[in-house]
Amino acid sequence: MAAQVLSMEARTGRSNQRYGSQGERLVAGIVPLSTDKYYVLLIQSTRRGGWVLPKGGWETDEATAQDAAKREAWEEAGIVVKITYDLGLIPERRKPDQLTAQAPKAAYHFFEGAVEKQESQWPEMHKRSRQWMTFSQATQALADRPELLDALNRCTMHR
Which ranges carry the Nudix hydrolase domain (predicted)? Predict the structure, then answer.
Protein backbone atom coordinates (compact mmCIF):
# COMPACT_ATOMS: atom_id res chain seq x y z
CA MET A 1 0.00 0.00 0.00
CA ALA A 2 1.29 3.47 -0.86
CA ALA A 3 2.26 5.73 2.03
CA GLN A 4 -0.47 8.18 2.96
CA VAL A 5 0.39 11.73 1.96
CA LEU A 6 -0.49 14.09 4.80
CA SER A 7 -1.56 17.53 3.64
CA MET A 8 -0.51 20.52 5.74
CA GLU A 9 -3.77 22.22 4.76
CA ALA A 10 -6.94 21.58 6.74
CA ARG A 11 -10.16 21.22 4.80
CA THR A 12 -12.71 23.95 5.38
CA GLY A 13 -16.33 24.53 4.43
CA ARG A 14 -19.26 22.17 4.11
CA SER A 15 -19.67 21.82 0.34
CA ASN A 16 -18.61 18.13 0.42
CA GLN A 17 -20.35 17.33 3.71
CA ARG A 18 -22.40 14.12 3.99
CA TYR A 19 -25.85 14.34 5.60
CA GLY A 20 -28.14 11.69 7.06
CA SER A 21 -31.78 11.03 6.20
CA GLN A 22 -33.01 13.52 8.83
CA GLY A 23 -30.76 16.28 7.53
CA GLU A 24 -28.17 15.78 10.28
CA ARG A 25 -24.45 16.29 9.58
CA LEU A 26 -22.54 13.00 9.56
CA VAL A 27 -19.52 13.49 11.79
CA ALA A 28 -16.61 11.07 12.24
CA GLY A 29 -14.45 11.18 15.34
CA ILE A 30 -11.55 9.45 17.02
CA VAL A 31 -10.66 8.54 20.59
CA PRO A 32 -6.84 8.64 20.20
CA LEU A 33 -5.08 6.48 22.78
CA SER A 34 -1.45 6.03 23.75
CA THR A 35 -0.15 2.54 22.94
CA ASP A 36 -0.36 1.53 26.62
CA LYS A 37 -3.98 2.82 26.74
CA TYR A 38 -3.36 4.93 29.87
CA TYR A 39 -3.75 8.27 28.06
CA VAL A 40 -6.12 9.88 25.58
CA LEU A 41 -5.16 12.89 23.46
CA LEU A 42 -7.62 15.79 23.64
CA ILE A 43 -7.50 18.96 21.56
CA GLN A 44 -8.73 22.46 22.21
CA SER A 45 -12.04 23.43 20.64
CA THR A 46 -11.57 26.45 18.39
CA ARG A 47 -15.11 27.64 19.05
CA ARG A 48 -15.49 27.33 22.82
CA GLY A 49 -11.92 26.88 24.02
CA GLY A 50 -12.70 23.73 26.02
CA TRP A 51 -11.26 20.28 25.34
CA VAL A 52 -12.72 17.94 22.71
CA LEU A 53 -11.92 14.76 20.80
CA PRO A 54 -10.79 15.17 17.17
CA LYS A 55 -13.87 14.98 14.94
CA GLY A 56 -15.39 16.54 11.88
CA GLY A 57 -17.56 16.12 8.86
CA TRP A 58 -17.44 12.93 6.84
CA GLU A 59 -17.00 14.20 3.28
CA THR A 60 -18.35 12.83 0.02
CA ASP A 61 -14.89 11.96 -1.37
CA GLU A 62 -14.10 9.76 1.64
CA ALA A 63 -15.13 6.13 1.18
CA THR A 64 -15.60 5.45 4.89
CA ALA A 65 -16.19 7.26 8.16
CA GLN A 66 -12.87 5.72 9.27
CA ASP A 67 -11.09 7.66 6.51
CA ALA A 68 -12.71 10.87 7.73
CA ALA A 69 -11.78 10.12 11.37
CA LYS A 70 -8.13 9.54 10.40
CA ARG A 71 -8.06 12.79 8.39
CA GLU A 72 -9.54 14.75 11.31
CA ALA A 73 -6.98 13.20 13.69
CA TRP A 74 -4.23 14.52 11.42
CA GLU A 75 -5.71 17.97 10.70
CA GLU A 76 -6.79 18.79 14.25
CA ALA A 77 -4.28 16.90 16.42
CA GLY A 78 -1.26 16.21 14.20
CA ILE A 79 -1.40 12.49 14.82
CA VAL A 80 -1.33 9.39 12.64
CA VAL A 81 -3.65 6.75 14.09
CA LYS A 82 -4.34 3.11 13.47
CA ILE A 83 -8.06 2.43 13.96
CA THR A 84 -8.44 -0.38 16.50
CA TYR A 85 -12.19 -0.40 17.28
CA ASP A 86 -15.45 0.87 15.87
CA LEU A 87 -17.16 2.55 18.85
CA GLY A 88 -20.42 2.88 16.93
CA LEU A 89 -22.93 5.62 16.33
CA ILE A 90 -23.64 8.25 18.97
CA PRO A 91 -26.74 10.43 18.61
CA GLU A 92 -26.81 14.19 19.07
CA ARG A 93 -27.02 15.03 22.77
CA ARG A 94 -26.71 18.80 22.70
CA LYS A 95 -29.76 20.78 23.75
CA PRO A 96 -31.51 22.89 21.10
CA ASP A 97 -30.02 26.09 22.58
CA GLN A 98 -26.51 24.65 22.01
CA LEU A 99 -27.13 24.11 18.28
CA THR A 100 -26.23 26.89 15.87
CA ALA A 101 -25.84 27.38 12.12
CA GLN A 102 -22.09 26.81 12.66
CA ALA A 103 -22.76 23.75 14.86
CA PRO A 104 -25.96 22.15 13.52
CA LYS A 105 -27.49 18.84 14.59
CA ALA A 106 -25.11 15.96 13.97
CA ALA A 107 -24.85 12.18 14.17
CA TYR A 108 -21.45 10.99 15.39
CA HIS A 109 -19.54 7.84 14.40
CA PHE A 110 -16.57 7.34 16.70
CA PHE A 111 -13.59 5.04 16.43
CA GLU A 112 -10.84 4.14 18.85
CA GLY A 113 -7.33 4.53 17.50
CA ALA A 114 -3.77 3.89 18.61
CA VAL A 115 -1.53 6.90 18.04
CA GLU A 116 1.35 5.72 15.86
CA LYS A 117 2.97 9.11 15.23
CA GLN A 118 2.63 12.57 16.79
CA GLU A 119 4.08 15.28 14.56
CA SER A 120 5.42 18.63 15.79
CA GLN A 121 3.81 20.47 12.88
CA TRP A 122 0.26 19.90 11.66
CA PRO A 123 -2.46 21.77 9.75
CA GLU A 124 -4.32 23.32 12.73
CA MET A 125 -1.33 23.76 15.09
CA HIS A 126 -1.84 27.54 15.18
CA LYS A 127 -5.52 27.17 16.14
CA ARG A 128 -5.38 24.34 18.69
CA SER A 129 -3.28 22.93 21.45
CA ARG A 130 -3.33 19.23 22.37
CA GLN A 131 -2.86 17.45 25.66
CA TRP A 132 -2.53 13.86 26.84
CA MET A 133 -4.91 13.13 29.73
CA THR A 134 -5.77 10.23 31.99
CA PHE A 135 -9.29 8.80 31.86
CA SER A 136 -10.39 10.81 34.91
CA GLN A 137 -8.88 14.05 33.58
CA ALA A 138 -10.58 13.52 30.20
CA THR A 139 -13.90 12.69 31.89
CA GLN A 140 -13.78 16.06 33.67
CA ALA A 141 -12.63 17.92 30.55
CA LEU A 142 -15.51 16.48 28.47
CA ALA A 143 -18.17 16.87 31.17
CA ASP A 144 -20.26 19.38 29.18
CA ARG A 145 -20.06 17.35 25.94
CA PRO A 146 -22.15 14.20 26.59
CA GLU A 147 -21.67 12.82 23.06
CA LEU A 148 -17.87 12.97 23.45
CA LEU A 149 -18.05 11.54 26.96
CA ASP A 150 -20.10 8.65 25.53
CA ALA A 151 -17.33 7.91 23.00
CA LEU A 152 -14.69 8.06 25.76
CA ASN A 153 -16.73 5.70 27.95
CA ARG A 154 -17.03 3.20 25.06
CA CYS A 155 -13.26 3.00 24.49
CA THR A 156 -10.94 0.38 25.97
CA MET A 157 -8.53 2.71 27.79
CA HIS A 158 -7.51 1.98 31.40
CA ARG A 159 -9.88 3.58 33.88
Answer: 23-155
